Amino acid sequence: MKKLTFRNMLDNLRSSVAGVADAVTGANKFDVEPDENVKAQEFAFAEVSRSGFPQDPCCLALEPVQRILAIGTRQGSIRLLGRPGVDYYLRPGGSAGLATESSDREALLGSSSNGGNSHSNAVLQIIFLVNEGTFVAVHANNWLHLWSFKGSKRPDIIQSLEFQKETLTVCHIPYRSKWLFAGTDKGNVHVVQIDAFVLSGYIINWNKAMELSSRSHPGRVIHLSDCPSDAGKLLIGFDSGLITLWDLKNKGADVRFQITDTSLCSISWHHDGKQFVSSHADGTLAVWNPKVPHKATSHTAPHARRSKDDAGIAIVQVEWKKQKGGNEALLLFSGGVAFSQENSSIAGGSAKNSSAKTTKARPQTMSIVQGKSTTVLEMEHPIVAFLCVPSAPHLTEGCEHEAVIVLLENDLVAIDLAAPGYPLFENPYSMDLHEPPAFSCYYVADCPSDIIPTLYTAGAKHKKSTFTDKEWPIDGGMWGSAATPYSDLLLTCHSEGTIRFWDVSSASLQHLDRLKINRIFERSKKSAGKSPLPAVTAAPADAVATQDLTSSTVAATSEQPSETPPAVTDGPIEIQLISLDPECRCLAVGCVGGLVILYMWNRQEISSEIAVLDLTPAVSLVPVPAAEGVTALSEESERGGRRLQPRVKSGLHKRAAGYQPVLVCYTDIKSASTSWSPNEKLHEQQASTQSQDSGTQDNGALPSASLVTSLAISSKHGLLAIGSDTGLIVVDIIQKHCVMNLATPDLYGSEDPFQRGTRSSPKHEKAPPHSPPVQTATADGVSAVPAAVAGTVSSSPRPSVNAEKAELVRSRSSSSSSLDFIASEAVLCLKFADTYGRRADVNIGPCLWVGTELGSVLVLAFQLPSSSFSASVASSFDPSQPQATHRLSQPVIGVPTGTLFRYNNSGAVVCIALLDAHGALLNDTASTASSSANASTVPVQPASLQSHDVSNGRSGARPSEASAGSGIPALTSLLADARHILVLCMERQIRTFVLPSQALYQKYKLHSDPSNSLGHLTILKATVENVKENACIFCYLSSGRVTIYSLPSLRPLLDVPLSPANDLRLCRTLSFGRHAGALFMASKSELQKLTFSAETASCFNQPNGELFIASREQQWVTESTRPSAVAPAVGFLKSLMGAATQAANTLSASQQVEKDREELFGEAAGKGSKALARHVAGSAMEQAKISSNMANSEIGRAKMLALERGEKLGELDEATERMRQQAEAFAGNAHQLASKYKDKKWYQL
């Protein structure tokens, strides 16, 4: 017989209480496991698109027939741009420079951690093979890659060539030629056969290109081009200033040009081939005539200097074009303007103006000289490169150049050359993602359908109208048809206090609208002499767990005097984090300094006034000893200090359609002694002096700046939860009233497992009990509410805590001996849900789940007015609605439930989610609640808080919890499983529980993963999203990998590498969405869209359109527009070939030139040295070889089968012949026998 003890009695009592709850809601474990329909085969990693401006651009190229623009970067990536919506991101990977699947993924996504510091793989030059669907990329690591974008597949590397002894500097491919000229740093020029990608034996050595009398090395080759009038002449430019016109036929220098006192920057031919212009580092331009080699025709500085001592600004690039309509030349060049001129306002330019000063590295001005007219355009950023866009491809007599495309360091602009004043084209690509810099992203997949059209309409009203009326000059390619069947919305937070909205439903990025925080605040008057609010860099919300939050907290706070108005400011308000409700109807924005702004969605323009709440964050009521050398501010000093929070504009103001501000919460009213003041040390001295003069002695610590660490919105109940580094604030956004204001220790109540104190204190004294609480009437009797709740001040004694609650806390909490003297505890995770807040709850109710940085999860329950659950936030604001009367008149009451989840060595809480019994997310939306309320009413249970419909998990889900007009539960609800699943994700483990029993269902610890070789892994970011009506948890680990687990069984579904370990940018900007989608900032200016769904990945096989169009040339080459579509060329071996034969006369000029080049660089020149360059076949070539081998094997097998069939046919012929012979013999014998007995009678036989 079991011995009866007091402990056994308590255990029996606890088990009986749990048994009663289990009898109603079921056993701890599910009798029938949740249907997890997701399978590992349904998940696959794929890169959907790359949007934004290429980071660190360094070169620019144009395909004139296909109208494709290429941009190369210092990271080695290439962006191909066509018409809006045609966009490709390319990057070679691997040590050999080949774009394999695994290496390309690591190179693509791993580049974000480099920060652009490593430029060994920079793209030096991109050269298109006109109308052939291929281009050559020249890299700084001496690789030549031949890319092909012809066909419907993604562009891929066909072949590669690596130079091993010399460094590549510049390359050139003549028009419609299969030979490439490659210049090196040693001054040599090599010839490469493009089809086979092998070196030719033809070499132009540097010592033959220079004068025999010269003793100095000419330097590296920086320019290569063929003469427009004679394809047998190659112009070679060296950086020392030497220019050589090389005769390819005679293998010698024809003419040499030299400017000794300055270095060479660039060269451009005139279209007639009779002269060319060169730009130099001293800001001069020189025009040369091949017939006058020793002296330049003209050598001038286009922009005058103030004095001879002023250093000239280099003209980095020059282009010499000719307009078809007249004889005036069109000269364009970048640079050449002195620093004093570039810093001043330059008249005559119609491009963007900027006050930023230029540097010596790159020019910031562009000059257009046409006849006697000179126009200087000042760009907003330094110029990287530019090129002219012809109205038609290469013509023999020149052509109109309709635009010039200028690549800046942070922008891409196009200038209309045909219009007066040179206006800009409107850029259709979303390349201003980084202006101002973005530091966080919020991805909303499958958003409501009315969000994007309304934002687009509102944003269209703010667009500039100073652009030209013409369309963007780059219109190559075809639009891709791949797009998600739902709408995807992206929100980006920028450094100047701006939130921008983007449409990411398709592969391209489209800007919708922007939201400026400063617009709702007043501006300071310059005459008042008030110092502006300094721009404070916002700390990312993801990095809160790694920050030092052990600063001292104040012992007591006093009410801020209402007569002291907040200060106004002109400075930007930095955004920390944002939060959207599931319906995207409420947007909460947390800013630096504890400022929280609530926006409500409205499709109409209205005039409204913003409500303001001053909410001083609650702090622990435990006396905290002050740190050494720190003196607390007195009450007089607090009141005398100027509050630096911005002031909201009062009165009615017109609000544009979209997200409109309705509420501003000041959760941190700062004094002049805090870090928000521009003169921090001076104000500290003033505050210390005031404290000493007043004679006050306070051992408290200085108030620290409040940090908004988490936000959560419940549009269904009209509640806003604000988590900070010191506590929690809950605001009723309908009544504009603070419901709860608790410090983190007060959330625990008397069951706080930690001893609150400061680590810097020399003595650790035991903390006295908390201040007396306030007795608040709730649905289940009298509950203890701490005195820190806003609007309540009481000195009544605290009632005793329920024994069951204390037992639950003791059973769930771990040992607190290792976590003594906690200075502060931030609230990192908040989640609203209608679920079971206590273990003994029978019905569900509105709850708030709170996760802290110490790994604790607590639950708060709320009691709402009787009909509020059926009213949405929008209807509650309208007094004409019947349910609004109850919601606006009756208060919302919130109390801690006493439920606590905490485990040792688990880290901070990263994510909290609630699922229904079928494994789908609980949908906390107002529309679901409203539809449920129309069908049923839920009775108020006296033993718990008010219950709500349990069918919140799925759209169009199960029947309601109770029948209409009756308090008796419906039969269908009794048969349904009313239990919920709790998902807790901490830094080192994931756990799932069954509610209301709170029994552990499954757990997964990272350190127990046998495939993990890094040891201590942590989960940096986690999100629970629905995938095909089943919830899955997406985790981003500190190792740079993304893991996906099914819920609630935590079965691994996918594990892929995403980035290098400890990638800070990706951790801050990574955002998961529904349907297994994700977004993150791959660089400071580029956005990468991903998918982990195999179905979505298959839809985006051709996401960004088609680049090459076979019929594109027919749009340019027509008999009515121009007689010839070939470049001008003259055969330079005509004298050697003698009289042309009849067959040779049929060749065109370009074909004749190519034939002559074949004779010079082909077999007659020999093969290049294998030690000089190494050839590597690309992945496409390897696949072609594999396909060829497979085809050969199939052909051989078919041949063998054909031979066997032939042998069998031969045997059949022989058998047929034998049968024929036997038939003939039989016929002969029969004939003889018939002849023998023909005349005999029967009796003669």
TrEMBL record:
<keyword id="KW-0472">Membrane</keyword>
<keyword id="KW-0175">Coiled coil</keyword>
<dbReference type="Pfam" id="PF08366">
    <property type="entry name" value="LLGL"/>
</dbReference>
<protein>
    <recommendedName>
        <fullName>V-SNARE coiled-coil homology domain-containing protein</fullName>
    </recommendedName>
</protein>
<feature type="compositionally biased region" description="Polar residues">
    <location>
        <begin position="943"/>
        <end position="954"/>
    </location>
</feature>
<dbReference type="InterPro" id="IPR036322">
    <property type="entry name" value="WD40_repeat_dom_sf"/>
</dbReference>
<dbReference type="GO" id="GO:0006893">
    <property type="term" value="P:Golgi to plasma membrane transport"/>
</dbReference>
<dbReference type="InterPro" id="IPR013577">
    <property type="entry name" value="LLGL2"/>
</dbReference>
<dbReference type="GO" id="GO:0005096">
    <property type="term" value="F:GTPase activator activity"/>
</dbReference>
<feature type="repeat" description="WD">
    <location>
        <begin position="257"/>
        <end position="289"/>
    </location>
</feature>
<feature type="region of interest" description="Disordered">
    <location>
        <begin position="749"/>
        <end position="779"/>
    </location>
</feature>
<keyword id="KW-0963">Cytoplasm</keyword>
<dbReference type="GO" id="GO:0005886">
    <property type="term" value="C:plasma membrane"/>
</dbReference>
<feature type="domain" description="V-SNARE coiled-coil homology">
    <location>
        <begin position="1180"/>
        <end position="1244"/>
    </location>
</feature>
<dbReference type="GO" id="GO:0031201">
    <property type="term" value="C:SNARE complex"/>
</dbReference>
<dbReference type="GO" id="GO:0045159">
    <property type="term" value="F:myosin II binding"/>
</dbReference>
<dbReference type="GO" id="GO:0006887">
    <property type="term" value="P:exocytosis"/>
</dbReference>
<dbReference type="InterPro" id="IPR042855">
    <property type="entry name" value="V_SNARE_CC"/>
</dbReference>
<keyword id="KW-0677">Repeat</keyword>
<feature type="region of interest" description="Disordered">
    <location>
        <begin position="790"/>
        <end position="809"/>
    </location>
</feature>
<feature type="region of interest" description="Disordered">
    <location>
        <begin position="937"/>
        <end position="965"/>
    </location>
</feature>
<keyword id="KW-1003">Cell membrane</keyword>
<dbReference type="GO" id="GO:0019905">
    <property type="term" value="F:syntaxin binding"/>
</dbReference>
<feature type="compositionally biased region" description="Polar residues">
    <location>
        <begin position="685"/>
        <end position="699"/>
    </location>
</feature>
<keyword id="KW-0268">Exocytosis</keyword>
<dbReference type="Pfam" id="PF00400">
    <property type="entry name" value="WD40"/>
</dbReference>
<dbReference type="InterPro" id="IPR015943">
    <property type="entry name" value="WD40/YVTN_repeat-like_dom_sf"/>
</dbReference>
<feature type="region of interest" description="Disordered">
    <location>
        <begin position="676"/>
        <end position="701"/>
    </location>
</feature>
<keyword id="KW-0853">WD repeat</keyword>
<feature type="region of interest" description="Disordered">
    <location>
        <begin position="550"/>
        <end position="570"/>
    </location>
</feature>
<feature type="compositionally biased region" description="Polar residues">
    <location>
        <begin position="550"/>
        <end position="562"/>
    </location>
</feature>
<dbReference type="InterPro" id="IPR001680">
    <property type="entry name" value="WD40_rpt"/>
</dbReference>
<dbReference type="InterPro" id="IPR000664">
    <property type="entry name" value="Lethal2_giant"/>
</dbReference>
<comment type="similarity">
    <text>Belongs to the WD repeat L(2)GL family.</text>
</comment>
